[in-house]
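Assemble and predict.
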Amino acid sequence: MTKLDDIHQEYLIAPDPGRAGLSRRVVGHDESGKPVEIAVVEERPLTIYLNSREIVTAMTIGDYPEYLALGFLSNQGMLSADEDVTAIDYDEELQVVVVRTATETDHEAKLSRKTRTSGCAVGTVFGDMMEGLEGLVLPAAELRTSWLYALSHKINRTPSLYLEAGAIHGTVLCQADRPLVYMEDVGRHNAVDKIAGWMRAEGVSPEDKILYTTGRLTSEMVIKTALMGIPVLASRSGFTAWGVEIAREVGLTLIGRLKGRRFVCLSGEDRLVRDVDPGSVAEEDRRHGRKGG
Amino acid sequence: MTKLDDIHQEYLIAPDPGRAGLSRRVVGHDESGKPVEIAVVEERPLTIYLNSREIVTAMTIGDYPEYLALGFLSNQGMLSADEDVTAIDYDEELQVVVVRTATETDHEAKLSRKTRTSGCAVGTVFGDMMEGLEGLVLPAAELRTSWLYALSHKINRTPSLYLEAGAIHGTVLCQADRPLVYMEDVGRHNAVDKIAGWMRAEGVSPEDKILYTTGRLTSEMVIKTALMGIPVLASRSGFTAWGVEIAREVGLTLIGRLKGRRFVCLSGEDRLVRDVDPGSVAEEDRRHGRKGG
């Protein structure tokens, strides 16, 4: 079993549950009427601009707003890989983050055109994401089952805001059996957008990476992972039918229900290298599982 | 202990996990390389129109599209209580549902004006929801702890798509210790919107109702419940700080982490009547808890 300190040293970015502003102590009463004080996660609106255009308001715990904005715009196909990002300005008081490019991108015009016909960018944005999948080929890569078990073991034991306050999702960028960047957020897809933003800012290549998430493997999670160019997506949660369908179309390896020695692979089985006997892996200790929610 | 048949008879609408089109059997492999066939929930886009205006595309399992559209528009403040809804037309092939009113509502004009300035209705829609909270007073009501325990016990044992396929949230409209309408959906807030749509269509009054959800008590869940006029929101999951803040402002009773004999009340404690000794309530059987996701 890996020691906690050793696990923590593997990360480039690990959760910082003690950081001020991410959670708050709130006083209430328990089932016996006894006063209790519990930690609850923060949830704040953050409005993302691309140059002068307001794009979306995300509900977020509030850490890494620059990565969130950069990753969101990249994952929505509004900021292509060769776009020159000149600045990212975050105003904490206004809860606004502005991503600036050298020249106005054509996505601003595109968005403006589409909102006139659709009324809301939700459908539009989603349509744009699907567009980006056409012709996408994810790289060949190896996924050893020993890595899956090691990652799951390490991630479940990493001190996190989830363990501190619950009600939050986590996404971890990994390489082989090493967890690299662990982001958490109340907003379902913000954690993965923050990872996308970090990868873009640091120029990190996706082809040998694995994305681990605590959330469900929905179409949107699958699309985001594929657009990021990451060939493997793993989760302790379950699947949706459309998520599986898209993963199979783009050749993404999709691992779900990863708990203890168990998992199910519903797409991209060819990358899987079974280098460990599942019978030798311990069942999940209840203490290290995740509670509902 | 209540028998399953008796529980099922209490519902006006219960989940129908065997219904065609809500889940699909998918073949993959487990950790040992053994082929497995598992049920996964469907996830389809449904585009909601208000008269001639496209409002939003929601990702949904696809049941009760009329209730979803009606409830969504009501909860967003786009369809006031006195608005005359003349028809709700659902086109299964196009995956479109159109809610028609006698005269064009001013929300279409409002939306049109706001999208010009904001680019995306997400922030706008959210802003509108907050607007509806001003001056809102939730009715006085009694919430017996025996009801909470009975509801939790019954709901956890109700056959559902969650138990069948996982990866889905449930919301249940209750009255005292009786669960009335149990809706499920992949989209986080669709289940509660479907309940709002059912209440509006059936003319059901909210003041003596309890809303139970399997999901987290976020700001959006709290706002929707308050706008529906329901004085109590309970969940087996945790809280966000802003969710608690809004609940306290509008006087909503907020019960979280409701599992077995345990719960935490963080707002609206005055409605709580402790009519049962928590020590006499059984701890949650693991089999009846919810898995992650």
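The two ends of chain B are 28 Å apart (CA to CA).
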